[in-house]
Amino acid sequence: MLAFTGILIKEEQGYSALCPELDVASMGDTPDEARAMLLEAATLHLEGAFEDGLPYFRPVPPDADPRIIAPDTVVQVFHFKVDVALHAYA
Questions:
Q1: How many CA atoms lie within 13 A of 90 on its CB side?
Q2: What is the spatial distance between Cα 51 and Cα 89, in angstroms, rounded to a whole number?
Q3: Which fold has domain 2-82?
Q4: Per 3-state DSSP, what percentage of the chain is helix, strand, and coil (rounded to 5)?
Q5: Tens of pLDDT, residues 17-35
Q6: How far apart are CA 86 and CA 67, in angstroms?
Q7: Is the pTM of this model over 0.70?
Q8: Which of 24, 48, 55, 82 is most buried, by CB atoms within 10 Å?
Q9: Which element (helix H / strand E) includes 72?
Q10: Contact 31, 8 (CB under 8 A)
Q11: Residue ranges of the domains in the chain?
Q12: How is residue 86 annotated by DSSP?
């Protein structure tokens, strides 16, 4: 199981959610929708990276982290886990 950080951000229209450890983001009309879409996006990103043998960890640079550059837009910081099943093939 892998643990990550989610950042919920208020946009002009709706909400966005960002996982800074993976540099994966999503959007939604409500905070719950943006959060759910982020979980799906993070899961798909990890599955694809593992299947293709690519690095999955792509941290957001500090100068692009909304907690640093626009803290007034951050609605919530939350933690989530992704359960990844690995299979070995020969």
A1: 0
A2: 11
A3: Double Stranded RNA Binding Domain (3.30.160)
A4: 35, 30, 35
A5: 999 999 999 999 999 999 9
A6: 33
A7: yes
A8: 24
A9: none
A10: yes
A11: 2-82
A12: -
